[in-house]
Amino acid sequence: MSGLVVTNARVGIHHGVGHSPGAHLGLAHALANAVLLPHALEFNLEATAEQQAQAAAAMGLDCRGLSAMDAARAAGARRIRRAQAAIGVPRRLRDLPGPPRRDDLRPVARETMRDRALYFNPRPIAGEAAVLALLEAAW
Questions:
Q1: What whole-number distance in Å separates Cα of residue 61 and Cα of residue 75?
Q2: Which of 37, 60, 105, 137 has minimal CB crowding within 10 Å?
Q3: Could you tell me what percent of the chain has a pLDDT over 90?
């Protein structure tokens, strides 16, 4: 059932970037995804402000009087980071068990560009440099 969800949800950069660290660095896919989620939300903010604002309202944030962009900024990545801290999930790639070296990020970015999940990302991905910037932010 979860496979059907992923297929129908059309995952984007968050899930696409999460594949390569597991395959190339031996990092747990779930932990890589947990670390990368707030960075993916920030990466996609300009393309998904309306949806992230809806998520903010669904999370119980009072968004009255805020633009969609401001509501999205107040919710998304910040809320995820608080949840990460509350449950003790590592918040940086370098904090994962068997941490990658920073030099490993470029090959991961290169490999990520071949991941079909990027096709469905709401914000076009200009190239390897954009993926590397997301990984660096998560480092």
A1: 7
A2: 60
A3: 27
